[in-house]
């Protein structure tokens, strides 16, 4: 049973060096909707990291993404057009070690896909991070799911997270592939709402946050009822609902 949205743990660094962080995954539909509402939703969630899908990719895309980051009290970490849409934002609590944007093989006639990746530290915790937006085509999506696992392992961190728009449900092959190797946030510690699509009629879970086994998933789900977060803004911001997770990341050994 999901816990109350008000019960989400706050971000903090523990005396042992471990870190409790908030991670938000959000498909922002290229900021084609109400960007003020979008920024209000992000701010209300108070995330340390935002894993974005469908960031602006064309004319002045960097300025648009930077403007959203500023309005959300965050900074751009990596991604955007250089990752074919996925991006990562963070707050100033994060210490950045490195970033890399990855373009995946292009299937003729289909949309180009990519990963935005980074390695960051919060207190004594070191974390690999990946934002993704997987294919609508099931066979290509499954191949991309395998590439995601390889890329996450290749970040060289003991602990890592991945989040994004999977274009697949928990019963699908790609979602299942990821859930076999990683912790599915909602399935591990359900909190708030389950379904992320669509804001007007939430009926399917195609957006998710995953974590490697050593991370303690404290809560994960679609936020609602939090201070400053309204149904009006959630519906106006974009065509997906965000997924928010609270995670405890152990200190690096």
What can you see in these coordinates?
With 253 residues, the chain is an alpha+beta fold. Helices cover 23% and strands 31% of the residues. The chain has 6 helices and 13 strands. Strands 1, 2, 3, 4, 5, 12 and 13 form a 7-stranded mixed beta sheet that branches. Helix 1 (35-45) packs across helix 6 (231-237) and helix 3 packs parallel to helix 4 (173-181). The N and C termini lie far apart (34 Å). The mean pLDDT is 96.
Summarize the structure.
With 253 residues, this protein is of the alpha+beta class. 23% of the residues lie in helices and 31% in strands.
Write the layout of secondary structure elements.
Layout: E1 12-13, E2 19-27, H1 35-45, E3 49-53, H2 61-71, E4 75-79, E5 87-90, E6 95-103, E7 114-122, E8 125-133, H3 138-153, E9 160-165, H4 173-181, E10 183-184, H5 185-188, E11 207-211, E12 216-221, H6 231-237, E13 243-249
Parallel strand pairs: 2-3, 8-9
Antiparallel strand pairs: 1-2, 2-13, 3-5, 4-5, 6-7, 7-8, 9-11, 10-11, 12-13
Alpha-beta content class: alpha+beta
* Global mean pLDDT: 96
Quote the beta fraction.
25-35%
String of helices and strands: EEHEHEEEEEHEHEHEEHE
Q: Let me know the number of strands.
A: 13
Number of helices: 6
Shape: globular
Taking Cα atoms only, what radius of gyration do you get, to the nearest Å? 16 Å
Low-confidence stretches: none
| Separation of the first and last Cα atoms | 34 Å
What share of the residues lie within helices? 10-25%
Main β-sheet description: 7 strands, mixed
